[in-house]
């Protein structure tokens, strides 16, 4: 018998909550909501920014990787600033991660690698997602984690 028990999602409440952040207002609300959940459950909040692969820009020689890395750095700086304001009154544990790819694949990869118990994302602001399906809908359909969509 192994000393290490197999991983079970959500059996004793969440230990890791993944929140997707892309800089939009709904994604910031999702991070705030996830932070409250993580604080109350004493869980780790893993904030994930997925750097988009902009194939068209890269094909024309645009410095795509540098641009998306700058966005990640800016988001992390904003999170650190907000966390510093609340550090005295909160024991929230959090980490910032970046992944490269499309948002669904990046959040799925992050959630798998971090053994997430829950995923929190903001509602999509794009009209086309009603036809194709939003990242949130795709995460729900994947059926691997409880998904909360914050408007």
From TrEMBL:
Belongs to the universal stress protein A family. It comes from the Bacteria. InterPro entries: Rossmann-like_a/b/a_fold (IPR014729), Universal_stress_UspA (IPR006015), UspA (IPR006016). Pfam families: Usp. Residues 65-92 form a coiled coil. The lineage of its organism: Bacteria, Bacillati, Actinomycetota, Actinomycetes, Kitasatosporales. SUPFAM superfamilies: Adenine nucleotide alpha hydrolases-like. Residues 15-151 form the UspA domain. Keywords: Coiled coil. This is Nucleotide-binding universal stress protein, UspA family.
């Amino acid at each position: 018998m192994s000393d290490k028990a197999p991983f079970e999602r959500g059996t004793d409440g969440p230990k890791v909550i993944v929140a997707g952040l892309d800089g939009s207002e709904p994604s910031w609300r999702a991070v705030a909501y996830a932070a409250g959940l993580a604080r109350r459950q004493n869980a780790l909040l893993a904030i994930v920014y997925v750097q988009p692969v902009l194939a068209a820009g890269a094909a024309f020689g645009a410095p795509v990787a540098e641009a998306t890395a700058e966005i990640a750095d800016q988001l992390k700086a904003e999170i650190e600033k907000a966390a510093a304001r609340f550090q005295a009154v909160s024991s929230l544990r959090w980490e910032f991660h970046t992944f490269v790819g499309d948002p669904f694949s990046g959040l799925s990869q992050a959630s798998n690698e971090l053994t997430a118990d829950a995923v929190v994302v903001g509602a999509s602001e794009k009209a086309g997602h009603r036809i194709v399906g939003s990242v949130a809908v795709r995460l729900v359909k994947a059926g691997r984690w409880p998904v909360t969509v914050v408007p």
